[in-house]
Amino acid sequence: MRTFGIILVVILGLIGLTFVAGRGGHESYDSKTFKPGPVIGMVKGLSDDALEGRQTGTEGAKRAREMIISRLQALELLKVGNSYAHPYELDLEGQTVEGVNLIGVIGGTAKSRDRIVITAHYDHLGTKDGEIYNGADDNASGVAGLLAIAEHFKRRKSPPKHTLMFVFFDNEDAMKAGSKAFMAEPPLPQKQLAFNLSLDQLARAEDGVFWTSGAALAPTLTPVMERVSKEAPLDLKQLAANGNDLANGLVEADLPYIALRASGAETTPDATDTFDNLHQDTFLKSVETAVMVAQAIDNQLEDLLGLPPLPSQEE
Ligand SMILES: [Zn+2]
């Protein structure tokens, strides 16, 4: 009986250890391209109850913007005009509400007019029946992913060849209002917008797979995605040719794009989308994969778009 008791204690201990390991502290995945601390901290901060689900036009959305802007300042991204904030008006059930997109820029080193626009929405559903919809996966994770890409290009002494424009959309999930407002008055001539990389819901790659859409619409993208997939911590699988359901309003302007979403994110958003339910290890692998996709697009944009190669950088 006593032996049985000891065995039981050992078994329970092992189960406990497995559980802890499975949850994955943020130290467990060692990223090569960004520091995990600020990335995890951004998701935690944006999905905090105090922000009440970041609904457009609320104090919570304003606080979300303050967090993102302080990170854009720390990373020294450039502004378009005199502010990171780009407000626009939208009609929400008969009421005029102010939506605010955020834009930060990293200048490219090559003589190219082609800009890569990297996008994620920061808004979420607010509260419903007294429950906060925190939106940790949807889409605090994508916002943190964008900032990790920015950190990669700013801090690792690997500036991009092409100018990168990071855009954080407001009111995107429900109405695609943020991306439509961006395209209605683009901050630079529309023909200079060459490509869109879109991140939405990065945190739930339950079977280690990342969905991409967009590649099937542009055959030149397929080999690039296959190469990234071989190196990246997650597999990249393409959605079907008409699978542009992950895309945003930029696609309506015929912009070539890649949209990334973790494979386990098919479920409808609900109040369980909290920071505590996020698998940090998987999330960090998703972010690293997204950084690698961004790097590949910058490296090979001319190939992707069927343009002549860039002139040599030496003057
Ligand atoms: Zn979303």
TrEMBL record:
InterPro entries xref list: M28_fam, Peptidase_M28
Domain Peptidase M28: 101-287
One Pfam assignment: Peptidase_M28
PANTHER family reported for this sequence: METALLOPEPTIDASE M28 FAMILY MEMBER, PEPTIDASE M28 DOMAIN-CONTAINING PROTEIN
Name by which UniProt lists this protein: M20/M25/M40 family metallo-hydrolase
Organism, scientific name: Ponticaulis profundi
